[in-house]
Amino acid sequence: MSAAANIGVVGLAVMGSNLARNLASRSGNKVAIYNRSVEKTNDLVANHPEANFIASDSIDEFVASLAKPRIAIIMVQAGFATDAVITALSERFEKDDIIVDGGNALYTDTIRREKEVSAKNIHFVGAGISGGEEGALKGPSIMPGGSKEAYEHLGPILRSIAAVAEDEACVTHIGSDGAGHFVKMIHNGIEYADMQLIAEAYDILRKAGGLNPIEISRVLTEWNAGELESYLIEITAEVLAQVDQKTGEPLVDVILDAAGSKGTGVWTVQNALDLGTPVSGIAEAVFARSLSSQAAQRAGAPEYSAGDTIWEIADQGAFIEDVRQALYASKIVAYAQGFDAIGAGALENNWDINLGEVAKIWRGGCIIRAQFLNRISDAYRQDSKLLSLLFDGYFIRAIEDAAGAWRQVVSKASLAGIPIPAFASSLSYFDGLRAERLPAALVQGQRDFFGAHTYKRVDMPGAFHTLWSGDKSEIQTD
Ligand code: NBP
Q1: How far apart are CA 315 and CA 17, in angstroms?
Q2: Which of 40, 142, 257, 473 has the CB geometry, 3.0–4.6 Å to 12, for a possible disulfide?
Q3: How many angstroms does the Cα of residue 285 sit away from the middle of ligand 1?
Q4: Residue 33's beta-bridge partner residues?
Q5: What is the best residue among 76, 130, 181, 367 to mutate for testing ligand 1's pocket, by most ligand atoms within 8 Å of CB?
Q6: What is residue 262's predicted lDDT score, i.e. its pLDDT?
Q7: Closest atom of ligand 1 to CA, residue 37
Q8: Angle formed at CA 301 by CA 298 and CA 302, multiple of 5 degrees
Q9: DSSP letters for 367-427
């Protein structure tokens, strides 16, 4: 066989086969394909003759079909399957060849794999790919890590298949080793928060405002023409407008209210806990899914007399606008927290991540794509050392404009007994961030009392401990 392909794809389930077709449809690419079971390979070749794939039944044949430097994108399940394919390729690849893992790997696995593979002088690139199956086919947002050298070869190919937003390809070299998969993980965490916030807005409009799903769908369609414009608002409007074909009821009313997850939201929160960076909006979104899935516990809840009261709505239009404002402000907080988490991860792992570029490549192809990301990109372009997105001029004004409505919605939803974990935690985060003094001083006092953990003083350097069980005098310990 002649080594004629400039790129190969291993793993031909939904993502891999669509990515292979996307690659083949772009000029200049000749695509080699391989899958463990030959049926998927044969199906792909038979169904898409226009792609002119170079198909192989064995990994040896696949490797031989790639021109040097060989580049193979792996699209298999994260974990053992990915390790098995990497091992098979790295046993056959040679110096300067490039293995790309396009699956949803945990970034710490990517760091390990990069070390192992690069020890053989083979490049390893962990690339986060977002946009689901449609994105893989029509243009995803791509977040590659790995070395700059590998990106020089890989960049033009990835640019050829990525989504395009405002004439720019939604791909950039994120940083070394696991940086790409780290940023993809945070992307998914933000996605959890965004979805939960939209769901809470829906719940308020329905339970307090008495709007039905079709009416709420129309509200979301109107919102989608303004600053909330996003793929998630757009698809939510579609879901709410859908009528169940079996019962004639709104589809949302016949879907079991137990939300699943595949783990990247959990990874984001676990990681943020390790880094000590608050991602409360994302965490509440993950926990809201957990609570929704506690079927037995929810079914066993007694009929509480919980003091909830009717939300009296005098002006329906003003009420809907307040909910929109609360959603926008909470969303800004969720994104601010997500970008903080990327900054914290970059610091911890010595990645030089350009946050403005990250915002830019999320404008197209991915699930959280939105106009709003232009504002985030602008904010970081104006000040790459911005301490929080909430301190950028545009976002200060947006939050100030929304703050009154935000407080009304959070307080009135609480009075009405409507659960709003992400709305409420976002507002509390904002209030915590801007507070001159936090009750953390008292927590330090408590910690010193029972554990002699010491505290710092506002008026002098050093560490101090009060002799709580003695004469209550203070001693300096450091
Ligand atoms: P799956 O992960 O469901 O399928 C795995 C594919 O890899 C199958 O075709 C399987 O072959 C093949 N494979 C090979 Br080659 N070697 C394997 C091995 N040693 N063990 C197991 N399978 C092996 O595919 P997917 O849903 O297309 O997802 C691919 C990756 O993309 C995953 O990491 C996923 O998390 C990620 N991702 C998915 C989405 C999405 O929307 N689905 C979005 C973004 C990212 P077989 O035919 O012999 O079983």
Answers
A1: 52
A2: 40
A3: 26
A4: 9, 55
A5: 76
A6: 85
A7: 48
A8: 165
A9: TT-BTHHHHHHHHHHH-TT-S-GGGSHHHHHHHHHHHHHHHHHHHHHHHTT---HHHHHHH
Distance 256 CA to ligand 1 centre (A): 27
How many whole angstroms separate alpha carbon 315 and alpha carbon 293?
A: 35
**Do the beta carbons of residue 78 and residue 55 sit within 8 Å?**
no
Taking a C-beta distance cutoff of 8 angstroms, is the pair 36, 63 a contact?
A: no
Q: What per-residue confidence (pLDDT) applies to 2?
A: 57
Cα(239) to centroid(ligand 1), Å: 27
Q: In whole angstroms, give the CA distance from residue 33 to residue 42.
A: 10
Residue with CA at minimum distance from ligand 1 atom 24: 13
Cα(10)–Cα(16) distance, integer angstroms = 7
pLDDT along the chain (478 residues), means of 10: 85 97 93 97 97 97 97 96 98 97 97 97 97 95 97 95 96 98 97 98 98 98 97 98 98 97 92 97 98 96 94 97 98 98 98 97 94 95 96 98 98 98 98 98 98 98 98 97
Question: Mind spelling out the 3-state secondary structure of 47-69?
Answer: HCHHHCCEEECCHHHHHHCECCC
**CB-based contact 399:202 (threshold 8 Å):** no
CA of 98 to the centre of ligand 1 (A): 19
Residue written as token pair 């192809």: 365
Residues with beta carbon inside 6 Å of ligand 1?
A: 10-16, 35-37, 40, 75-78, 81, 84-85, 103-104, 129, 132-133
Cβ within 8 Å of residue 253, ≥6 positions away: 213, 244
Type of residue numbered 5: A
Name the pTM for this structure. Answer: 0.96
Active-site residues, by number, are 184, 191
Q: What is the pLDDT of residue 28?
A: 84
